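I'm curious: can you give me some protein's one-letter sequence along with its backbone structure tokens because I've never seen that pairing?
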Amino acid sequence: MTFSPYIARPIRYAGITDVFGYRLKRYVILYGGGPFREHDFEIGMKLAFESLPRPAIEPQRPGVGFAIAHQGNGVDYAVLAWWDNENELPLRIFVRPQIVKGEWRPAIAGESVCVWDLEVIGFERNAYVKTLLNAGDVEQYLELHLG
């Protein structure tokens, strides 16, 4: 079995967006350089955001999370994660082929997050433990970001 060697991809923090009462940190990951095609991700992110449970804030749901727009190698990924049930991280992943400019659709079968997305997820896990689980501080969680 031959794998392509791992090459780091730029990860950029893109601010906080408010969606249905949630405050979500936004990240962009780029494969191969070039400009980020923000317009291409609008529909994918909209589909992901529509899957958020409501209301955003419940006794075990602080109304925070993060979203990743990953411009990958041949495929675009819209990844949404929010903190729920006190210590759980539900994920929603939508994908779209780049070459034929296909439609966004939910991830199926073996499609999931990748090693580059896991860098963001790992950081966000540590930030959540430090700020919300140990200190109960939502604002401090939102201030911490990768990049």
Remarks:
- The beta strands are 11-19, 22-30, 57-58, 61-62, 64-71, 75-82, 91-97, 105-106.
- The chain is about 25% helix and 30% strand.
- The radius of gyration is 15 Å.
